[in-house]
Design a protein that fits this description.
Elements lengths: L1 H10 L2 H19 L5 H7 L1 H4 L4 H26 L11 H9 L3 H34 L4 H12 L1 H4 L5 H15 L2 E2 L6 E2 L13 H20 L18 H6 L1 H16 L5 H15 L12 H24 L5 H12 L6 H6 L1 H24 L4 H4 L4 H20 L2 H19 L5 H23 L6 H4 L1 H20 L8
Helix pairs in contact: 1-18, 2-5, 2-18, 3-5, 3-11, 3-16, 5-6, 5-7, 5-15, 5-18, 6-7, 7-13, 7-15, 7-18, 8-22, 8-24, 10-22, 11-20, 11-21, 13-14, 13-15, 14-15, 16-22, 20-21
């Protein structure tokens, strides 16, 4: 409690609070713009993190993360286009309400759902992450290696409908991670005589290219125009007491499912929102309203996708394994500013961790306030011309890549991986497995070498430890479930 109280002191420092609000508002805007994602928003904030205290930078990034999860519902409700994949289920009832002249109320219910799910997930994060970190302090190199292998098995579940393309993407990420000096043998690998490659590719430069630059190229090719917004005054956004009582069950179902799905690496808000929507409809007394403008149909998926934020941060903070693509980008950003997520973070920098916990609580209230009292601005956000927005994003990408090491080489890396990311998207190769390979590859290689050195090349070390054996079993189960989910469906005869 003392650490948490000190965290609130840090959050309410004027500069920290201002950057937190900037992250929340920026996240809502990024989330509301179709095609823009939370990971891209975090990347655009990277240049600011160099000049900020680690606690302030982390709180700002968390504000961007949470704000963007809610922001996706705005375009889903107003123009029937989810701003983020996590808002895909929100449009099923959100847009019908807009057609009935209740767009303001739909946005208010979405804000309430996001607030409830986010707040619930924060308390789960506070309770679970420190306990999981205590267990992780007992990890040996073999345990860390099997943990990384378990993380890499998520490639299968993040591959979409084409497992082969997902695995190719993941293997390419692992290949990228091997560039540079071998930490054990001290030999240069795949540097081709280029001095800048001796230290390997900068993780954040790769992420900027794969997510942000590729998105700009994609939007330029598609020549996307702002969606058609239903012309109506957004009013009566604050839900009444009876309306809140009517969605309590939906909020509870969404929050619980969201946290559970968020903790499982490689899942994310898109899965959580549809699961919450289906389960809420199953238990609702008004099933017939779903798909025609049900408040429960908005509250449940919005509570679920915001609840995944705290859930996804549990493995990232306590184990150093990203829970989803956004936390993978956050992991790279944190390493950039000198914060290494994992069990030692709770020992070495507890003030940073508890400042984040306190910040996440305040972020939920800030997001609710901004969402309910800024509805008149939302239609204008969706009218931003893409021929203005995309050049601004591209400039920020270049600046962000350059400021990593004040090197034009990182800008070149970002541009090259931007082109690679564009063609991956064009030919339906998922980016998430590539990110997992780049992030977890070095962790797997380093701890594999350490474990074999300590055991004198005895491979039995990976099944002798209970923790390592548990992760091995989880890896096999993860692969089996992914293959089972991709099995051909039998047609009803």
């Amino acid at each position: 409690m003392e650490h948490l109280f000190n965290g609130f002191v840090i959050v309410f420092q004027p500069l920290t609070f201002a950057y937190m609000v900037l992250g929340v508002v920026g996240g809502i805007i990024i989330g509301a713009l179709p095609g823009m994602t939370a990971s891209m928003g975090i990347i655009l904030l990277l240049p600011l993190t160099y000049y900020l205290d680690p606690s302030t930078a982390l709180i700002m990034l968390a504000g961007m993360y949470c704000g963007s999860m809610y922001g996706g519902s705005i375009s889903a409700i107003l123009i029937r286009t989810p701003g983020t994949p996590s808002a895909a289920a929100t449009l099923l009832d959100g847009y019908p309400l807009t057609e009935q002249g209740q767009a303001g109320k739909a946005i208010g219910i979405a804000a309430l759902g996001s607030f409830a799910g986010g707040l619930f997930s924060v308390f789960c994060l506070i309770l679970l992450a420190p306990q999981l970190a205590k267990v992780a302090l007992k990890f040996m190199p073999a345990d860390y290696f099997m943990l990384a292998i378990f993380g890499l098995t998520i490639m299968a579940s993040t591959s979409g409908n084409n497992l082969i393309k997902g695995l190719i993407s993941g293997w390419f990420g692992l290949l990228v991670a091997t560039v540079g000096i071998d930490g054990i043998a001290g030999m240069a690998r795949f540097t081709f005589g280029i001095p800048e490659l001796m230290g390997g590719f900068t993780l954040v430069a790769v992420l900027i290219g794969v997510f942000a630059v590729s998105q700009v190229l994609w939007e330029v090719e598609s020549k996307k125009k702002p969606g058609e917004i239903v012309q109506q005054e957004l009013r009566n956004t604050i839900p009444t007491i009876p309306e809140i009582k009517g969605v309590v069950l939906a909020l509870i179902i969404g929050a619980i499912i969201g946290v559970f799905i968020g903790i499982i690496p490689g899942t994310g808000g898109a899965i959580a929102c549809f699961l919450a929507y289906n389960e809420t409809r199953r238990w609702s007394k008004n099933k017939e309203k779903f798909g025609r403008g049900s408040y429960e149909g908005i509250a449940a998926p919005e509570a679920a996708n915001n609840a995944t934020t705290g859930g996804a941060l549990v493995p990232m903070l306590s184990l150093g394994v990203p829970g989803d693509v956004v936390t993978a980008v956050m992991l790279g950003a944190l390493m950039l500013i000198g914060i290494k997520p994992g069990p030692m973070l709770f020992v070495d920098q507890p003030h940073v961790v508890y400042a984040l916990f306190a910040g996440l609580i305040v972020i939920q209230f800030t997001m609710l306030f901004v969402a309910l009292f800024s509805t008149r601005i939302f239609p204008y956000i969706l009218k931003v011309p893409y021929n203005i927005l995309m050049p601004v994003v591209m400039v920020l990408c270049v600046v962000g890549a350059y400021t990593l090491q004040n090197s034009m080489f990182d800008v070149l890396v970002a541009l090259v991986f931007g082109v690679i990311g564009y063609f991956m998207r064009k030919y339906d190769y998922p980016a998430a497995p590539l990110v997992l390979g780049v992030v977890l590859g070095p962790m797997a290689e380093e701890n594999l070498n350490r474990a074999l050195l300590l055991s004198r090349n005895d491979w039995m070390v990976f099944i002798q430890s209970p923790i390592s054996l548990a992760f091995l079993i989880l890896s096999v189960v993860s692969i089996f479930l992914a293959l089972y989910a991709l099995r051909p469906k039998k047609e009803n005869s």
